[in-house]
Specification:
Shape: elongated
Oligomer: single chain
Largest sheet: none
Number of helices: 11
Number of strands: 0
Length: about 180
């Protein structure tokens, strides 16, 4: 921390030094100070992906999904359309869900699913967003995909049980 302060004093326009300062503040659980450092870094390097991601993560940890989503959108804008990384799309989907925009979250998570191998967590979050958006059949399919990868996934199993109750006896026959 002392060396970072010296680096900042010697080169106050160093995005790397300000980013490191932000990381130190985050490790110390001082998110407001981390935000200030990250914004200084962003001032030095406006499209710095590492800084935009760090800002989004800090806002997410602070339970401010609106600001997290804004920074994730800024980050996504630094890529060519269609080249955004899966994790950026995934985090955008989580932020949209946290804002209660479940249909938008489901759409974003579907794009994330297509960007690479879909983890059980991504598929579960997709199923959750689909269920919240009232897309019960799609939610069932996504939850079943989770269980195809991880047959013991407790949240996906619970979701299928809830879907069976919501969709009636015919759906219950499909429970694994």
């Amino acid at each position: 921390s002392e060396k970072v302060g010296v680096a900042i004093d010697l080169s106050p326009q160093s995005a790397a030094a300000w980013t490191l300062q932000g990381k130190i503040f985050n490790e110390r659980r001082q998110p407001r100070d981390a935000l200030a450092a990250y914004y200084r870094a962003l001032g030095c390097s406006p499209e710095n992906r590492e800084v935009l991601f760090a800002l989004a993560e800090t806002y997410r940890v602070m339970n401010d999904p609106q600001r997290a989503l804004l920074k994730l959108q800024n980050l996504a804008d630094t890529y060519q359309a269609g080249d955004e990384p899966q994790n950026v799309l995934y985090l955008q989907g989580l932020a949209l869900s946290a804002l209660g925009r479940h249909a938008d979250a489901a759409s974003m998570l579907m794009v994330a699913r297509e960007r690479g191998p879909a983890s059980p967590e991504l598929l579960y979050r997709l199923a959750e967003a689909e269920m919240q958006a009232g897309r019960l059949t799609a939610a069932r399919q996504s939850a079943e995909q989770v269980l195809a990868i991880d047959p013991q996934h407790p949240l996906a199993r619970t979701m299928l049980e809830r879907l069976n109750v919501a969709q009636g006896p015919a759906a219950a026959a499909g429970l694994r």
